Amino acid sequence: MILELDCGNSFIKWRVISNPEARVVAGGVVGSDEELLQVLSSSPGVELSRCRLVSVRSDEETQQLTGKLQRAFSIDSVCAESAQEMAGVRNGYDEFQRLGLDRWLAVLGAYHLSGRACLVLDLGTAVTSDFVTAEGSHLGGFICPGMPLMRNQLRTHTRRIRYGDDAAERALQKMMPGRSTVEAVERGCLLMLQGFVQTQVEQAEEWLGGAYELYLTGGDAFMVKDAFPQAKVLPDLVFVGLAIACPLS
Ligand SMILES: Nc1ncnc2c1ncn2[C@@H]1O[C@H](COP(=O)(O)OP(=O)(O)O)[C@@H](O)[C@H]1O
Ligand SMILES: CC(C)(COP(=O)(O)O)[C@@H](O)C(=O)NCCC(=O)O
Ligand SMILES: [K+]
């Protein structure tokens, strides 16, 4: 079985797939390396033979994680790497190595699945957008703070914005003007998020000419998906790209 990891700035998304059928056997989201080791060693029937991963963390952090996996399960890891061109997509960054690897894999996955122009939005710690033409030319994209960064900036840089996670969840059940701090902040940040996605859709009309596929991925994709019924919501989009960038030869 193959362990697949997507190491973001806040969470590690993990999956175990069978080899060679590539059937998903187990998966989840964890907050730390230790939590990952623990959940993997307590998952019944999971027998790992190797690992492939993508990380936007520092090289040191990524090496620490692969070292822990080697010691705990005796498996080698391969890390996805940047490329100028792959699977019919040409990286649009001036310095292709600087494009976030999670973005690159999501773009590879989206173009592979759609075979046409696409707009890829990844809503995690940061929110990223990437535009790809029907010919596979990556035009670049935009980066802005995601929901966790927006709400934490307000909590950190003001004196009187303080509330807990439970209240935050309750506040988002309705979207009328907030009548408490938690409602005002949570609903305000969600409107920022939805507004950003709406702007990207408008940009796509301009840059991709209307006939494109919209993909939403990342932990907070569910917060905006109802406003964009045309979107394909694919939590595993980065893993689709990971299989392309790190094939099991
Ligand atoms: N099951 C989940 N576990 C952890 N975070 C989740 C989950 N579902 C949604 N989220 C939300 O997803 C966001 C993080 O998204 P993610 O794509 O994992 O970020 P990153 O790739 O930057 O680590 C957080 O705002 C978090 O509240
Ligand atoms: C933009 C990101 C921080 C997003 O990370 P995430 O929210 O998925 O944790 C990451 O893709 C990254 O570090 N990119 C490098 C900068 C760039 O893409 O231009
Ligand atoms: K992201």
Tell me what the structure shows:
By secondary structure, this protein is of the alpha/beta class. It is built from seven helices and twelve strands. About 35% of the residues lie in helices and about 25% in strands. Strands 3-2-1-4-5 form a five-stranded mixed sheet, with helices on both faces. A five-stranded mixed sheet has the order 10-9-8-11-12, sandwiched between helices. Strands 6-7 form a two-stranded antiparallel ribbon. Helix 5 packs across helix 6. The longest helix has 28 residues. It starts with a strand and ends with a helix. Ligand PAZ binds next to helix 3 and strand 9.
Helix and strand arrangement:
Layout: E1 2-7, E2 12-17, E3 24-30, H1 33-41, E4 50-55, H2 59-73, E5 77-79, E6 85-86, E7 89-90, H3 101-114, E8 118-123, E9 126-132, E10 138-145, H4 147-157, H5 165-171, H6 181-208, E11 213-217, E12 232-233, H7 237-245
Parallel strand pairs: 1-4, 4-5, 8-11, 11-12
Antiparallel strand pairs: 1-2, 2-3, 6-7, 8-9, 9-10
Helix pairs in contact: 3-7, 4-6, 5-6
Bound molecules: adenosine-5'-diphosphate, ligand PAZ and potassium ion.
Residues 8-9, 56, 98-100, 102-103, 122, 124-126, 128, 143, 146 line the site of the ligand CC(C)(COP(=O)(O)O)[C@@H](O)C(=O)NCCC(=O)O.
